[in-house]
Every structure is written in C-alpha cells, then in structure tokens.
Specification:
Number of helices: 6
Low-confidence stretches: 1-57, 224-228
Strand content: 15-25%
Helix content: 25-40%
Length: 228
C-alpha cells in the first residue's frame, strides 16, 4: 500500500512552554496569506492527528459519557449548518470572518494549528482561571455553554496538552453534554449545528480537539446586558 503524504503549509508558530507561562510568536503575514488560499480559510487536522483520523476511517460509537448525535444536526439551515451567524462580540479577539466560515460552512477543516495561542486567550484564560478556578467556553453562534476547563486536572495540564496537540483539548468531564454531540465520524458539534472540531481518542480516552474560534462566544445573559 502506498501512502501519499501531503505537505501542509502552516504559519510559523513558535511555542516556548515554561512552568508558569506560554510565550508565543505568531507570523501574522503567513496566517493572512494562507487564509486567502481557500474559502474555508482553514487547514485540515495537524499531520499527526490527520493520520490518526485516516487510520480510524468508518463510523464509530464513542463510549460514555460522550453523547452521540446524527447527521440531521448538521443539516442545512438559514446560515449554513446554523440558524444564525457567529456573534459580533467574540471573545479573545478571534477572527470573526474565519470563525463564521469554520463554524457554519465547514465540516472537516480547522483553524491553523497553534492559532489559539496567537489570540488573547492565553492571557485572559489565565486571569479567568485565577479568579474563578475554571475557564468557560461558549458556542460562538448561540452563546450556550459548551466546555468548562480544567476539570480533574490542573490549568497547567490543560494548557500543556492543548499546546502539545495544537488546539484546545478537552476531556469528557469538561464537556457540557446538554449542548455538545459527537457524530459517528468523530466530528464534534453543538446541538445547534456549530462545527466545533473532532473527537480524537488517545490512551486516556476521548480527547475533544476544538477550534477556539468555535467556542469564543459570549454568554447570552451578558449579550442581553450589553444591548440594554
């Protein structure tokens, strides 16, 4: 069997991880240039994760507490797979245009590996964790709460795993299953049709590899307060 390896051009992201901080240098020019190359403005999963996905072709049933969904969740609606565009006031200064494409007009692609570290997420998430003991992640379309981390591990462990894989990585206990589903091909979605990422299990169990721009929403109660 001949396996063709497709080289994926990625923006230059240099990560220096210490015990207390995450230092990131992001090549914005490279990122902007690659956004213009395709309408999805995204690349597929990282090379390592892509091979794992390739080797795991076929429908799956993930063990609990993962909640399975079906293809009807991602049916065409008023705005791609969702009823509305992403919110205007996304958190962490993420790219709204790119967020709308990935959340609502995409099933297989992701923000660039390491993109989340180029935003204000690292700084602001650390402050949120220090204030509240957790960080909350809301649907970029609806504002529903989808993930809360860390649970069952430290903030440092959550960040270290996310840096290692290139995307925010959540475990079962960090998922709000009222609003999150996994499809048989591993795609992770919200019940409202937002593409979130993929479930890529490892030796520790399910690992939800999630686009930051898909979970950068503002909770609906805060949106109401700002509009009053």
């Amino acid at each position: 069997m001949v396996v063709s390896i497709v080289k994926i051009a990625l923006p230059v992201v240099l990560l220096a991880l210490t015990a207390e901080s995450f230092v990131v240098k992001f090549d914005k020019a490279a990122f902007t240039q690659q956004i213009s190359k395709q309408s999805s403005t995204a690349v597929s999963l990282g090379v390592g994760d892509a091979f794992k996905s390739l080797l795991g072709l076929g429908d799956k049933v993930f063990s609990g507490p993962c909640v399975m969904g079906d293809e009807s969740i991602m049916s065409q609606k008023a705005h791609g797979t969702s009823n509305t565009p992403v919110q205007e006031n996304l958190r962490w200064e993420v790219d709204r245009e790119n967020a709308d494409r990935i959340c609502n007009f995409n099933r297989h692609y992701a923000e660039y590996r390491g993109y989340w570290t180029s935003t204000k997420f690292v700084e602001e998430a650390k402050a949120e964790y220090e204030a509240n003991g957790e960080v909350k992640f809301y649907d970029s379309n609806t504002g529903n709460l989808l993930f809360v981390a860390p649970k069952g591990r430290t903030f440092k462990e959550f960040m270290t795993e996310s840096v290692s894989h290139g995307w925010p990585s959540f475990r079962d206990e960090e998922v709000l299953w009222d609003y999150v589903r996994c499809l048989p091909d591993g795609e992770a979605v919200s019940v409202d049709g937002t593409h979130l990422g993929h479930n890529l299990p490892d030796s520790s169990g399910s690992r939800y590899c999630i686009n930051l721009i898909s979970v950068a929403g503002t909770p609906t109660d805060e949106m109401g307060s700002k509009s009053d």
